[in-house]
Amino acid sequence: MQSFEFHCPTEVVFGKSTEQKTAQEIKKFGGSRVFLIYGGGSAVHSGLIGRMKDNLREADLPYEMMGGVQPNPRLSFAREAVKRAQTFGADFILAVGGGSVIDTAKAVAIGLADDSRDIWDYWCKKAPVTGAAPVGVVLTIPASGSETSDSAVLTDEESKRKRGLSTDFNRPRFAVLNPELTYTLPPFQLSCGITDMLMHTLDRYFTVDCNNQLTDEIAEAVMRIIIRNGQIAHCHPHDYDAMSELMWCGSISHNGLTGLGNEKDFSVHQLGHELSAKFDIAHGASLSAVWDSWANYASPSAPQRFARYAENVWGVHNGSDEEKSRSGIALTIRFFRFLGMPTCFSELQGVGIQPDAVLHQMADSCMYSGKRTVGTFCKLDIPAAHEIYQNANY
């Protein structure tokens, strides 16, 4: 196990009707003027936004709201939200929604703390983050784990670049997790969320450090529970127990716990970011579309790691390491297909099979035109990324 530092200060408030505790949580963490960010109409139509307004009013907390966050959260929206939060004099940001809403809230919080820079500078690593306004979350989608993570992504829709930023300033002060708030999710959105939380664990599990017993077994348990309850929730989306397990797995999968003592890899996420930035597809779909190709590219160099995954997550015990490795990959793909998720480019709505020039462009962009490589488990450069995209392009 390698050296590590673990800091996850987010207070989790879990259970039925816990959204009614939001105002008291905001006050606990010093909030007095609240800027509430949410996504599309579902939060309004379900009555959740109305309940949040009532909750804030009853606590005498002035608030301003801004809705309209889209998947693959837009830089332009975040910039406008920073201006509106500044004008309002906000000292607390409340995100009501899923990962895109939470990531936007994190961007606004960083922008509020320092108005001397454009927020994109931080995502492009032109300056270190030195502060952020406090953020609270009312989670509606079990998926990204952004409610407990140190990371946030933004997409610059003009340049079609999608970038992530990790800093402890991104950690929300609290996260309200009521599994009942997930009941109105469309099936595809739920499937994308299940895929995303599984991939957050997979991208930490496939690592160069294979002598990390506790972290490995925590990760394997999280993946088994995601798979088991993902199957139940896919068929019975109002199953409270299944949604409870998924909601908690989503938070655990991205708070750092499942990768402690390992080098973070996240190759599949980096490959997927190029797809979602270029074609504006759902994040979870971009991950499932390239995972098979990445796994088949990476597994020959470390079949024993994939064999362990097959054994401890999928219960595959027969055959050589290479055979178990192939079985584990195949079972993962079968799970994605059960969820209705794409596993190659032709299954991505609005994408389809792409000309080779596009694959080259995505590979080049993923590696910042050769200025970086991606991953530690199986280090990827431009030719490797291009090959993985080619093998997914059918």
Automatic annotation (TrEMBL):
<feature type="domain" description="Fe-containing alcohol dehydrogenase-like C-terminal">
    <location>
        <begin position="195"/>
        <end position="374"/>
    </location>
</feature>
<dbReference type="InterPro" id="IPR001670">
    <property type="entry name" value="ADH_Fe/GldA"/>
</dbReference>
<dbReference type="InterPro" id="IPR044731">
    <property type="entry name" value="BDH-like"/>
</dbReference>
<protein>
    <submittedName>
        <fullName>Iron-containing alcohol dehydrogenase</fullName>
    </submittedName>
</protein>
<dbReference type="GO" id="GO:1990002">
    <property type="term" value="F:methylglyoxal reductase (NADPH) (acetol producing) activity"/>
</dbReference>
<feature type="domain" description="Alcohol dehydrogenase iron-type/glycerol dehydrogenase GldA">
    <location>
        <begin position="9"/>
        <end position="179"/>
    </location>
</feature>
<dbReference type="GO" id="GO:0008106">
    <property type="term" value="F:alcohol dehydrogenase (NADP+) activity"/>
</dbReference>
<dbReference type="Pfam" id="PF25137">
    <property type="entry name" value="ADH_Fe_C"/>
</dbReference>
<dbReference type="Pfam" id="PF00465">
    <property type="entry name" value="Fe-ADH"/>
</dbReference>
<dbReference type="GO" id="GO:0046872">
    <property type="term" value="F:metal ion binding"/>
</dbReference>
<dbReference type="GO" id="GO:1990362">
    <property type="term" value="F:butanol dehydrogenase (NAD+) activity"/>
</dbReference>
<dbReference type="InterPro" id="IPR056798">
    <property type="entry name" value="ADH_Fe_C"/>
</dbReference>
<dbReference type="GO" id="GO:0005829">
    <property type="term" value="C:cytosol"/>
</dbReference>
<keyword id="KW-0560">Oxidoreductase</keyword>
